[in-house]
Amino acid sequence: MASHHVVLSRGADLAGFRRAVRALLAASAVPDDVEWSAEGAGLFGSEALPDGPPVALPRAVGELISHVVCHSDPERYALLFALVWRIQMGERSLLEVASDPLVHRLALMDKAVRRDLHKMHAFLRFRRADEEAGAERFTAWFEPDHFILEAAAPFFVDRFRRMRWSILTPMGSAHWDGSELAFGPSGRRADAPPTDAFEASWRGYYESTFNPARLNPAAMRGEMPRKYWRNMPETAAIPALIRSASSRVEDMLQREAAMPTKRDPQKAVAAMANQDPETLDALNRIIAAAEPFVHGGTRAVLGEGPVGAPLAFVGEQPGDQEDVQGRPFVGPAGQLLDRAMAEAGVDRSRSYVTNAVKHFKFEQRGKRRLHQTPTAGEVKHYRWWLIRELEFVQPRLVVALGATAVLALAGKALPIGRSRGSAQFLDGFAGFITVHPSYLLRLPDEAAKREAYAAFVADLVQIHALAASGDGRTLSAAE
Amino acid sequence: MDTSLTVKLRILADAAKYDASCASSGAPKRAAGREGLGSTTGAGICHAYTPDGRCVSLLKILMTNVCLFDCAYCINRRSSNVRRARFSVDEIVNVTVEFYKRNYIEGLFLSSGIIRSPDYTMEQMMLVAKRLRRDEGFAGYIHLKTIPEASPWLIEQAGLWADRLSVNVELPSSQSLRRLAPEKDSASIRTAMGQMSERISEAKAERRRFAPAGQSTQIIVGADDTTDEGVLAMSAGLYDGFRLNRVYYSAFSPIPAASPVLPIKPPQLIRENRLYQADWLLRHYGFTVPEIVAGGAGGMLDLEIDPKLAWALKHRERYPVDVNSAERELLLRVPGLGKRAVDRIVAARRWTTLRLADVARLTAGLKRARPFLIAADHRPVGLTDRLDLRARLVTPPRQLSLF
């Protein structure tokens, strides 16, 4: 005769089971001595055992328990207690022995509960019935096999957080008012709205997405058993779809291939080939309208300068000032570039100036917008535009200012120090690598700054000479 | 929803149904905040099944079935007499959101016929995705069909909005593509796949969001005369070269408006199924294409038995395998033992010696596995070598088609 009688409340009483396990283990009860009842009002048996110390169990066991307590099998608590007891008796890895009859049976129950949860998430249908205030409200009626309402509800909260909804089941109800989840008594099918304005079109979709040439109702029933059908509006279409399938297919197979009734739209087909932007302006409109690939950037800062410019300067990305004014190289680095260009005799107004990345990537820190270096992947997102831009401008020489521009133009990271000077870029562009002017601004030491600035001006002088002396391509190839 | 919209939805769902993929898996777990709508669980959910046994997970529609291309296998080709329709961007956004709120779908799978130009079409499709994400705060799943003929910067943009991108290779050889889909070309398809593959893995490495559920593709089976070996070789190349998440095989299916160039026939559903099984062996069981194909004859898989069993029957000298001691790789080659069953066996045998009844609790495929296994209380004496073993293991194929 059982010496302990545990009464847990109806449904999935995880808290009650936990407490019972602690108490029973503290009292050294063995599984055969315990009788479980799951139909009570939540009282802990006739003989109230004192609570015991917490029981440490492997994480996987905890997960298994949280699912199996939802199972409708009245034996679930007895089986779970037997498992916990054996683990406590030394079989710590019992769950790994999936061939053990007890573990196997619990695994099947676990699977049944998971499947039930999954099917509830999948097959539940909301219907809209607005409240008087005009606020949207959705209600669903669902009949799960197991006590899963509480376990299933968080999924619907995550997904439909901004909606107000109720889920009614024969085993209780869940209600979400936009901020709080509440559980209530069981509902009735009649408490949910009888239909919904979108059900006809949903059924139309369902019917149309079915391919009669692949008819396989057994596979459908395997995944969507009949018991679910009565609460799913689209399933009313099933009998007719199955009935008509063979004649629809027969009809397709018998029908002669028909000649087109409309004339061939040859002009339109030919015109498809002309989708490429034909001018730099057209390309710039595309860039301006596109979504930034970096976080921050409020607008695209486009390249500036005449088509046919002998020199194209490519920087990293617009900075704070450039983003505000919408023009490249107008901030502190741009001013330095202007000064150096003037000293080297390069006319900025006759040069093309642009950036590898078209948006200002930054992180907001209080009122400041802190520049962030674009990643290699981000640079590649922008690369198509840069290359197309340069193809329109057709400069004799493309100058990469700093590492990001080199990455975009050479297709790989190169150390600036060692690569400084003439270079061959991808897509056939003759190139020149030098530092980014912002590098000069960042040097802490005045002497070093002067020296670096002089070297930068010297680079510009060389660049100017290369571009002026004719075809930069041949020049760099000759070096 | 008004009737004209319902009619359009029927036309544009019918036009999209020949694409096999409806998966909503692979997206990272996420949930919209207070103002948004939707979530992804990582695993994907099938919200219904149609009588063809296929899952309805996403709202799978075309933006329009008007198309300037003339692909012989496609119901929407420009020379087809099918009824045409076009959704506006707002209409698609609205239907997606309203269906989603009723828990009919996991999200949207948007494709389209080519109108005006590939770029224009792609821009319109992206506008739908952008509006869903931006204006509706939609955090559900979005799969965008990428148009490989579109400009590369549009493909770059598509990954910002979509969970999954896909380009269909459609036919398993470039000759077939040239013959049956004159406006397509396999070089541009591969270029687009390569571009997406690079960006997807870069973004993953840099922890940025760009098509986090990866890319997939579809191959139509049975429209041309490519062998299974040819199809699988193409898949293996795609998995290797472009790190695809999935290759879908779609048995060429009768369409109501067949092309004179490509007469229709009943779909090769069993062949399609065998290709999926072979694909699985390729990706998860350590098989190579030559090994898989060696199980059949003439470059075609055996239609009667699954490719793993076919391989095992031709390599009987490697069996039986001891369930209590064999390496994982060997167990994976036992017919009837799936990957999970093998994992369970390997875990359980650390603690216990497995008998046949134990194995029965670890796999549902014991009937097929038995002749190839040794357990503590079982040796398949002679069974492995029986000439009629094949006949004993062949289950008459399930009714998969009408024919």
UniProtKB/TrEMBL annotation, chain A:
SMART domains, sorted: UDG, UreE_C
GO biological process: DNA repair
Domain Uracil-DNA glycosylase-like span(s) in chain numbering: 302-461
Pfam families according to UniProt: DUF4130, UDG
Protein keywords: 4Fe-4S, DNA damage, DNA repair, Hydrolase, Iron, Iron-sulfur, Metal-binding
InterPro entries: DNA_repair_put (IPR023875), DUF4130 (IPR025404), UDG_Type-4/5 (IPR051536), Ura-DNA_glyco_family4 (IPR005273), Uracil-DNA_glycosylase-like (IPR005122), Uracil-DNA_glycosylase-like_sf (IPR036895)
Keyword Transmembrane: no
Molecular function via GO: 4 iron, 4 sulfur cluster binding; deaminated base DNA N-glycosylase activity; metal ion binding
PANTHER family assigned to the protein according to its UniProt record, in alphabetical order: TYPE-4 URACIL-DNA GLYCOSYLASE (PTHR33693:SF9), TYPE-5 URACIL-DNA GLYCOSYLASE (PTHR33693)
Family, similarity comment: Belongs to the uracil-DNA glycosylase (UDG) superfamily. Type 4 (UDGa) family.
Name of the protein: Type-4 uracil-DNA glycosylase
TrEMBL record, chain B:
CDD domains membership: Radical_SAM
Cofactor: [4Fe-4S] cluster
Every Radical SAM core domain range: 51-288
MF annotations from Gene Ontology: catalytic activity; iron-sulfur cluster binding; metal ion binding
Keywords noted in UniProt: Iron, Iron-sulfur, Metal-binding, S-adenosyl-L-methionine
The organism's place on the tree of life at top rank: Bacteria
Transmembrane segments: none
Keyword Transmembrane annotated: no
InterPro entries the record matches: Aldolase_TIM, DNA_rSAM_put, Endo/Exo/Phosphatase_dom_1, rSAM, rSAM_sf, RuvA_2-like
The protein, known as: DNA modification/repair radical SAM protein
Organism of origin: Chelatococcus reniformis
